[in-house]
Amino acid sequence: MSPLIDELISNNEFPTNNPIFLNSNIHKQIDDLLSASKYPIVVGGTNYYIESLLWDILVSPPTSVTSSASSKMVKDSLKSRSGSSSPEMMQREDDRDGDSSTPSDEISDLELETMSPKELHDRLRQVDPISAGRLHPNNKRKILRALEVYQETGIPISEFIKEQRSQPGGNRLGGPLRYPHTILLWLRCNQEVLNERLDKRVDSMLHNGLLPEVRNFYETYVKSQSANQYTKGILQSIGFKEFVPYLEKFGADQDTIIDNFLQNIEYKLPKEPIASEPEGLDLLRKCLDELKLVTRRYSKKQIKWIQNRFLGSHDRQVPPLYSLDTSDVSQWMANVYSPAVDIIESYINERQPKTTPMESVQHPGSGLNEEVLNFCEICKRHFVGEFQWKLHLASNKHKRAKDGLRKRVKRLGGGTIGGRGDVDGSSAKK
Ligand SMILES: [Zn+2]
User: Fold this and answer.
1) Ligand 1 geometric centre to CA of 140 (Å)
2) How far is CA 173 from CA 159, 166, 170, 310, in A?
3) Where does it sit, as one GO cellular component term (predicted)?
């Protein structure tokens, strides 16, 4: 698990938003290795990938329901527990089994695409109120996903999630740990070193054929798509979307001119524009700078994510996580390799490794409901989760807005607004 990100690969053709797709194959490979008494070692991967590899987590139910064993299991299980499944749901299931026609309440993809986030959220509230209650109305991607699942299966995504969480070892984050004897090695380095490495990696992309790759991807998959397809899947992955401004403005001819220019200066792109440089290079430079920025941001997010989901999980089975410091590469043997070997051998020989696993941390919001949507009537904003909601109610921004409203009401002679406790957030401490 490294903060260096796979998404940097500019023509990554994996559906990165669908870890289950990736996992269907890797789980078989792992099982094969285990049954041959070999130790599977998985290197790299995004956090979502690692999470759905280790836990039976429903990050994203497969689009094609019939093609997925895991989804079928959930469906079968939902069917067999007829006592707890709603009769209405069973009915819909039966309808679909016997009749392939579109259910009457289905909305076409085209229609969904033209709907505003609010309309989509309202629609989701109708078919899957539990999911609607968990998702921010602006989270169009997840709302669409939930609607898709409902349309394709006739089952709200929240039912799939509920089923999975109810398995032994399951919890609010998903199902149980798939492989009970797992060790996690986290290769880390200090933030400065990390930023430098990330920048270098972006810089080396030009040398490694970035331009032909993104051009090819753009010509093949993107040009023909409608504008709102840009918000979906691979097109949003880091390492491609940053180059769209350049790709749209310049063509392949300019790529060649720029590449020839860069070749002559050994791909050492000057930080600021120089007089002799070809047209388009400055825009490309800006795209690369943008990529550096989002990559840094993403790496910080990943680190936070590990802290929250691995170290801050109070109710989840988490394998021991060991931090290995890669900041000084000249100390690789002492700081990374030897401790890693010792940790792995210790586990095999059932003794205590010299390195201690990272300690779990208590997130200030742990224990609070993360899956509830609150709306502040004063600020006209939605908040997902009790933690964010409490932060908001205690924030100066909210207090100022509340005072402003109170003054306006007074001026208008409206008296107090104290009677609307739920509206002004009086449940929070004052
Ligand atoms: Zn507010």
Assistant:
1) 22
2) 14, 11, 8, 11
3) mitochondrion
Residues 201 and 258 placed together within one structural domain of the fold = yes
Higher-confidence residue: 171 or 426? 171
Centroid of ligand 1 to alpha carbon of 375 (angstroms): 8
Pairing relationship of beta strands 184-188 and 381-384 according to DSSP bridges: unpaired
User: In this model, does residue 251 exceed pLDDT 60?
Assistant: yes
Domain extent for 386? 373-424
Q: What is the spatial distance between Cα 90 and Cα 76, in angstroms, rounded to a whole number?
A: 11
- Residue of 354, 352, 358 lying closest to 335 (CA atoms): 354
The Å distance, Cα 378 to ligand 1 centre, comes to 5
Measured between alpha carbons, how far is 89 from 157 in angstroms, rounded to an integer?
12
Q: Domain total for the chain?
A: 3
Q: What are the tens digits of pLDDT across the range 349-373?
A: 989 999 999 988 776 666 677 778 8
Do residue 248 and residue 290 come from a single domain? yes
- Residues 339 and 404 occupy one common structural domain: no
> Per-residue pLDDT averaged across 300-305, rounded?
86
Q: Which pTM value belongs to this model?
A: 0.57
Q: Is the pLDDT of residue 345 over 70?
A: yes
State the DSSP H helix or E strand holding residue 373, giving kind and residue range, or none if neither: strand 373-376
Instruction: Name which of 164, 168, 166 is nearest 317 in CA terms.
Output: 168
CA distance 161 to 135: 14
User: What is the CA(164)–ligand 1 centre distance, in A?
Assistant: 35
Query: Has residue 228 got a pLDDT over 60?
Result: no
Count the residues in the chain. 430
Is the distance from CB of 378 to CB of 424 less than 8 angstroms?
yes
Decide if 283 is inside a domain.
Answer: yes
Q: Name residue 18's amino acid.
A: N
CB 150 within 8 A of CB 92: no
